[in-house]
Structures are given as C-alpha cells and as structure tokens.
C-alpha cells in the first residue's frame, strides 16, 4: 500500500480540495458511502491497523447510519475511519507520532480536526437535513 502524507493545517487548501473531491463522488442519497465502497476491504484494513497499533486496541466494526465505518480505540485516544477515501481522524486528544505514522503507513490520510470544523458547504443535501453540519459530519459522524 502506498504511504500517505499526514495532512496538516499547512495543507488546508489541499485538504479542502480532497474533501470536496470525495464529496462529489457518485453515491446513494443516504450519504453513508459512495458507489463502489468495499466494506470488506475497509474492514480488513481496519483490522490491520488495530493489530499494528498493538495490544489494548479494539475495533468497533458495527457502526451503522454513519459516514464512517469503523472506530479503533485504545490507550488515550481513538480513530474514526471514514467510508470515503482512506480518511482517518482522531476522536480524542492528539496521539503520539508513532500512531500517526502507523496510520499513514497503512495508506490512511490523517485529517487534523481544525479543517473538519469548517461549516459543510459541499454538493450534497446534508446541510438541509443536519443543522450546523460540518466537514466532520460529512465524513466522520452519524447521519
């Protein structure tokens, strides 16, 4: 798997371009995942991530009605894995650099929290149905 770059605030224009590109992927009206989403491939990748992070990490693969498919949690923080692209976002205080390197090494684009707080202004009807929707809502939340 190709190694992905850790996206930072310095990459904000690039990151927002990536989010907007993923937002325009053809897909069902329910916004949970795009056409061609391979849940089994994503599950296998999430399992590899859980093993790579080491003992004490747990995989929640029973997520439904959400724009993310899996949560990996462990000592001190958690990670949500989006159903769009190979986006990953931390759900608790900043992790150590080693965990970020593991995610990047497995092909995930690690998205920092700040850009995800921007109000959602994409092409889907999400903002019409979820007041106060953000880019976090679009790619990492329950819908």
Number of helices: 6
**Biggest pleated-sheet summary:** 5 strands, mixed
* Overall pLDDT: 87
Q: What is the total domain count?
A: 1
Q: What percent of residues adopt helix (DSSP H or I)?
A: 25-40%
Number of strands: 5
CA radius of gyration is 14 Å
Tell me the structural class.
alpha+beta
What ranges have pLDDT less than 50 throughout 5 or more consecutive residues?
Answer: none
Strand content: 15-25%
Shape: globular
Terminal-residue CA separation: 30 Å
Protein name: SMI1/KNR4 family protein
Topology:
Blueprint (H helix, E strand, L loop, with lengths): L11 H12 L15 H15 L4 E3 L7 E7 L2 E6 L4 E4 L6 H9 L3 E2 L2 H4 L9 H4 L5 H6 L3
Commentary on this structure:
The chain has 143 residues and is of the alpha+beta class. It has one domain (9-26, 37-140). 35% of the residues lie in helices and 15% in strands. The protein contains six helices and five strands; from the N terminus they run ααββββαβααα. It has helices at 12-23, 39-53, 97-105, 113-116, 126-129, 135-140; strands at residues 58-60, 68-74, 77-82, 87-90, 109-110. The protein has a five-stranded mixed β-sheet, covered by helices on one side. Strand 3 (77-82) and strand 4 form a beta hairpin. The radius of gyration is 14 Å and the shape is globular. The protein starts with 11 loop residues before the first helix and ends with a helix.
């Amino acid at each position: 798997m190709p190694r992905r770059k850790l996206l930072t605030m310095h990459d904000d224009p690039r990151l927002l371009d990536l989010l907007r590109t993923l937002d325009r992927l053809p897909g069902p009206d329910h916004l949970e995942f795009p056409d061609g989403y391979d849940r089994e491939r994503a599950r296998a990748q999430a399992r590899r991530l859980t093993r790579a992070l080491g003992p004490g990490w747990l995989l929640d693969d029973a997520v439904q009605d959400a724009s993310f498919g899996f949560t990996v949690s462990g000592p001190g923080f958690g990670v949500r894995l989006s159903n769009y692209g190979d986006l990953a976002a931390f759900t608790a205080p900043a992790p150590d650099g080693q965990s970020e390197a593991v995610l990047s090494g497995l092909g995930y684009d690690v998205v920092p929290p700040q850009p995800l707080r921007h109000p959602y202004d994409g092409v889907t009807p999400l903002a019409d149905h979820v007041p106060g929707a953000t880019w976090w809502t679009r790619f990492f939340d329950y819908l």
